[in-house]
Amino acid sequence: MAAREKILVALSGGVDSSVAALLLREQGCDIVGAYMKNWINEDAVIGHCPWQQDIDDARAVADHLGIEFRVVNLMREYREQIVQYLLDGYAHGLTPNPDVMCNREIKFGVFRAWAKEHGFTAVATGHHARRFLVADDGSRRPADSAPGHPAQDGQLQLWEGADKAKDQSYFLALLSPAQLADARFPIGHLAKTELRRLARTAGLPTADKKDSQGICFIGEVKMADFLRAYVPDAPGPIVRATDGVELGCHRGLHFFTLGQRKGIGVPSNTDHEAYVVVGKRAADRALLVAFDRPDAPGLFQREVQVHSLSWVADAPATSRILEGRVRYRDPRVALEFVPAPDATARIIFREPQRGLASGQILAFYDGERLLGGGVYA
């Protein structure tokens, strides 16, 4: 008989990870709950950072399930690998994605390493995503529902969550195959309504807790407030891209991203057309704007370069037609992937895409299957 898996469940204090622990316990897995203490708002950044409440809720869930609970302090690693990445990116005119990097570097990076060092075989989270084992004949079966022991046979694949409104596969786009092998996603097959029902039936303390919407592990802090606390203002002109007319002044390019309409600080025209950000000019720190029209210069792109490619599946060796999700919650769109040297590629979209900001993530798919991702140049 195969040995039971010893799984470290990342309990965030939310309902998704709580049900993940519940299901694994019901499968007969040997589980321990752990809260990743990554950020406690020690710099008094404006906004709600509910880390203490989250720890209390996570502990209450562990107590309710009768499992051991630990707090794993990763504050130094989080500040070095996620917060600094975020601030450096914005300071250089990019639009970083801390949630994607947090999954790669923290949850399935240092937290996974901590789990391995302490005798765990895998890390489970409350992500809405699914792992499948696919046989040579193309048949597939869930990889995270075998009671008590790891599934062994078949090619391991990562798929979108069954609830498309909650799917979080995009945020896993930069995982490696080794990280995927050590990940468990117990709730990926559930609709959110069913997940809430299971939580209530089991009497979980988090059954009706509202989903968090903030920065990964930082909480419901407005990004502008977070940046204002750490990145100095660097004012520059707001320039209309079509004719070079200066329309006003901004506090810093790091407060803006390509495609942004709100908060620019210049009024619409007499036809009530709003301005949209279409570019940034580093030489004079100019924010380039235009009226939000299909022909706005720089707003729509049919071809882009991506770098820092990462594959959870086999990397395409030649040009290939794939699908891509250009942002979280955007639908998958058709594209041609043209590989280039040094983990870069040229991407040609079938239809022009709006507001593709440097530093953001493009996730690659084959239908519902996540293949990997890259960073917009």
What report would you give on this structure?
Strand 2, helix 2 and strand 3 form a beta-alpha-beta unit. This protein folds into three domains: 196 residues, Rossmann fold; 60 residues, SH3 type barrels; 77 residues, Elongation Factor Tu (Ef-tu), domain 3. 23% of the residues lie in helices and 30% in strands. The protein contains seven helices and 18 strands. It is an alpha+beta fold and 377 residues long. It has a six-stranded antiparallel beta barrel. The mean pLDDT is 91. Helix 1 runs parallel beside helix 2, helix 1 packs across helix 6 and helix 3 packs antiparallel against helix 4.
Short description:
This protein is α+β, with helices and mostly antiparallel strands and 377 residues long.
Topology readout:
Layout: E1 6-10, H1 15-27, E2 30-37, H2 51-65, E3 69-73, H3 75-91, H4 98-117, E4 122-124, E5 129-134, E6 140-142, E7 155-160, H5 177-181, E8 183-184, H6 192-201, H7 223-230, E9 236-240, E10 246-250, E11 275-281, E12 286-291, E13 300-311, E14 320-325, E15 333-340, E16 344-354, E17 361-366, E18 369-376
Parallel strand pairs: 1-2, 1-4, 2-3, 4-8, 9-12
Antiparallel strand pairs: 5-6, 5-7, 7-18, 9-10, 11-12, 13-16, 13-18, 14-15, 14-17, 15-16, 17-18
Helix pairs in contact: 1-2, 1-6, 3-4
What is the chain-wise order of helices and strands?
A: EHEHEHHEEEEHEHHEEEEEEEEEE
Strand content: 25-35%
What gross morphology would you assign?
A: globular
N- to C-terminal distance:
50 Å
Strand order of the largest sheet: 13-16-15-14-17-18
By CATH reckoning, the class of the largest domain would read: Alpha Beta
Mean pLDDT: 91
Determine Rg (CA atoms, Å): 22 Å
Number of domain units: 3
CATH architecture of the largest domain: 3-Layer(aba) Sandwich
The tally of beta strands, per DSSP, is 18
